[in-house]
Design goal:
48% helix; elongated; mainly alpha
């Protein structure tokens, strides 16, 4: 099982904290059993959010070519965009 990323931990924790506060403020409860239900619901919601955060993509594997496979490119005069200019002697 892969370990959770920093983004997953952050989103899940923020979801738990903010959803708990929102549900407690909206319900205005002081009963212990309802607070426990709200807390369990917030933790379940936080886990759900943490699991739905997309995992980072792995970098594509680059296969190095050997020097034997590469063909030397012959130099040509036609490939030069403009002639080389040298400073004149004084």
């Amino acid at each position: 099982m892969p370990r959770p990323t920093v983004a997953q931990l952050t989103y899940g924790s923020c979801t738990v904290i903010f959803s708990t506060l929102a549900m407690l403020l909206l319900s205005q409860t002081s009963s212990g059993s309802l607070i426990a239900v709200i807390t369990i619901t917030a933790v379940a919601l936080g886990v759900l959010v943490a699991l739905t955060v997309p995992a980072p993509r792995r970098a594509p594997v680059v296969v190095a070519r050997s020097a034997v496979d590469e063909q030397p490119v012959p130099a040509s005069v036609a490939a030069a965009p403009e002639p080389v200019r040298e400073p004149s002697a004084p």
